[in-house]
Amino acid sequence: MKKVIIVGAGLAGSYMAYAMGKKGYNVQVFEKRTDPRKMRYNSGRSINLVVSHRGWTALAYAGIEEEIRKIVVPAYGRQIHDLEGNESYFAYSINNKAIHSISRGEFNKTLVELAEALPNVSITFDAFCEYVNFNTGTVFMKQGEQHNAYSADLIVGGDGTGSSVRGALMKQPRFNYSQDFIDSGYKEVHIPPRKDGKPQLNIDALHIWPRREFMLMGLANKDNGFTGTVFAPFNGEYGLDNLSTGQDGIRYFEKYFKDAIPLIPNLEEQWESNPTSALACIRCNPYHWGTNTMLIGDAAHATVPFYGEGMNGSLEDVHVFLELLDEHGDSNMEKVLETYTEKRVPAGNALVDLSLRNFIEMRDLVANPYFQLRKKIERKVQTNHPDKWTPLYTLVKFTNIPYHEAKAEGERHDRIMQQILAIDDIEDRWDSKEIEKEVLRLFESIV
Ligand SMILES: Cc1cc2nc3c(=O)[nH]c(=O)nc-3n(C[C@H](O)[C@H](O)[C@H](O)COP(=O)(O)OP(=O)(O)OC[C@H]3O[C@@H](n4cnc5c(N)ncnc54)[C@H](O)[C@@H]3O)c2cc1C
User: Fold this and answer.
1) What is the pTM of this model?
2) Is residue 93 a part of any domain in this protein?
3) pLDDT in tens, 6-34
4) Domain check: are 341 and 298 in the same one?
5) Of 51, 256, 259, 276, whose CB neighbour count within 10 A is largest?
6) CA separation for the pair 19, 316 (Å, rounded)
7) Atom of ligand 1 at shortest distance to CA of 13?
8) CA distance 245 to 226
9) Which domain holds residue 232?
10) In sequence order, which ranges of 226-384 are alpha helices (DSSP H)?
11) pLDDT band at 45 (very low <50, low <70, confident <90, very high)
12) Residue 89 falls inside a structural domain
């Protein structure tokens, strides 16, 4: 394998271009958008993202972790804002581990620049992939008024949720695909820093205003501002479809997120002009075709953003592929790609399931006293027995354990904790030695 074509210079595509370029492949990337360095980053996509352990592992593999660490802001826990404006803080881990917020635009630009600096990588912008012929290994591109065809030994679909490469695969027999929109969408609002440049909210936390069916989330930016995102159903009195004007937005915030209003000086204007976006989950199988085509990232497994793992899982796809390439060599692409599908399809499906599960947890359960009690018990057991109990959140965000294995362990924890929370007067006894012993007993007996 000498030549690689990557369709899409998003986060997964540009990371892969860099990593494959470093390995000496001749990499040609086609991106439908204009060069991000020549334009303000497009609206309608999330402005910032959370990088977690899997993302860092992939970046470290390619030797660019330190470069990216320069542009992130750490968050060590969740800060919950209740309806009355009270705040409570929950650390993400017992040993002060952090997740990191990064600007999507900055991250993408940095990856594009790193990739383009390699002499064997070229990125062509304003180039739209129309179709792929898998038999000949050819992509058909629309570039302005021209239609061009390019061939390669490996074609990579890194072209996101609406992937054209996947679209071509869907015409092949026995290629499975599903797409499901959830009934909620999102709208972003910008929370600027104070006039003196300091943050208006605790900069060390990810902020959540959970309101059962919906929530507001605040994620820090490098300039001490925050990107606020309202996730809410489209339907109903307070559904996004019925909150189209700026005045509707003010009315909504006054009722549910009153303490956030002073943080957003031009809320009315932002609410009216910022887009409302839908959220979909995509699953497919396989993630490759023959010996010359593969899907990475959202093209294979787009998910809702509630675990903040879509991009991390996308970088992990590429990382897993690169390690398979190291192990088997490009003379055995059949083995590399088959193993890639074998490893990543269950992981991609579990990523989607976990993200849907965390939607419920973030908007609903963090405001539920039983959830908070469960967290306290889990934290205590984890502190005293770190070799045994690792909470699901930690498995997902702070380890590289495959998503499907993390999910299975999380479900086992659910079964254990259901029994613990059903114990009489658990609210009074949660901190006792007997409860800790009972958790451990169930941990050994429930499989
Ligand atoms: C609101 C929101 C918040 C999120 N927060 C997080 C988070 O905190 N952490 C996290 O890990 N993930 C998060 N995600 C998910 C994350 O954005 C995606 O998983 C990630 O962007 C996937 O990367 P990708 O490169 O596969 O796709 P994209 O980033 O979508 O890149 C695809 C690229 O392909 C290009 N393209 C598309 N079609 C074509 C074509 N036909 N021809 C040529 N080019 C094409 C596109 O222009 C784009 O540049 C969030 C998503 C949303 C919506």
Assistant:
1) 0.95
2) no
3) 999 999 999 999 999 999 999 999 999 99
4) yes
5) 51
6) 12
7) 25
8) 22
9) 180-278
10) 246-256, 267-273, 298-301, 310-328, 333-363, 369-384
11) low
12) no
pLDDT digits (tens, 9 = 90+) for 350-403: 999 999 999 888 777 667 888 889 989 999 999 999 999 999 999 999 999 999
The pLDDT value given to residue 43: 43
Domain count along the chain: 3
Q: What is the pLDDT of residues 271-312, one digit of tens each?
A: 999 999 999 999 999 999 999 999 999 999 999 999 999 999
Whether residue 40 is found in the same domain as residue 167: yes
Please indicate, yes or no, whether residues 441 and 382 belong to a single structural domain of this protein.
yes
- Are residues 349 and 382 both part of a single domain? no
Residue 28 lies in a domain: yes
pLDDT of 125 higher than 60: yes
Residues 122 and 252 in one domain: no
Regarding whether 428 and 295 lie in a shared domain, the answer is no
Token couple for 91: 């650390």
Q: Does residue 41 register a pLDDT over 90?
A: no
pLDDT at 447: 86
Q: Which atom of ligand 1 sits closest to the CA of residue 15? A: 25
Nearest to 130 by CA among 212, 253, 7, 219: 7
Instruction: Collect all residues with Cβ–Cβ distance below 8 Å to 98 and sequence separation of at least 6.
Output: 74, 75, 76, 92
Q: Would residue 63 count as lying in a domain?
A: yes
**CA–CA separation, 155 and 308 (whole Å):** 27
Query: Which of 247, 278, 309 is the endpoint of a domain?
Result: 278
- Provide the angle, in degrees to the nearest 10, between the axes of the packed helices 333-363 and 403-421: 30
DSSP β-ladder status, 48-51 and 99-103: antiparallel
Structural contact between residues 139 and 280, judged by C-beta atoms closer than 8 angstroms: no
Best mutation site among 39, 148, 159 for ligand 1 pocket (most ligand atoms within 8 Å of CB): 159
Range name among 91-95, 111-115, 393-397, 415-419 with the lowest pLDDT average: 91-95
The residue type of 335 is K
- Compute the Cα dihedral for 433, 390, 49, 56 and give only its sign: positive
Which of 278, 311, 331 marks a domain boundary? 278
Q: Are residues 439 and 344 in the same domain?
A: no
| Best of 6, 15, 29, 32 for a ligand 1 pocket test (most atoms within 8 Å of beta carbon) | 32
Separation of CA 174 from chain center: 28
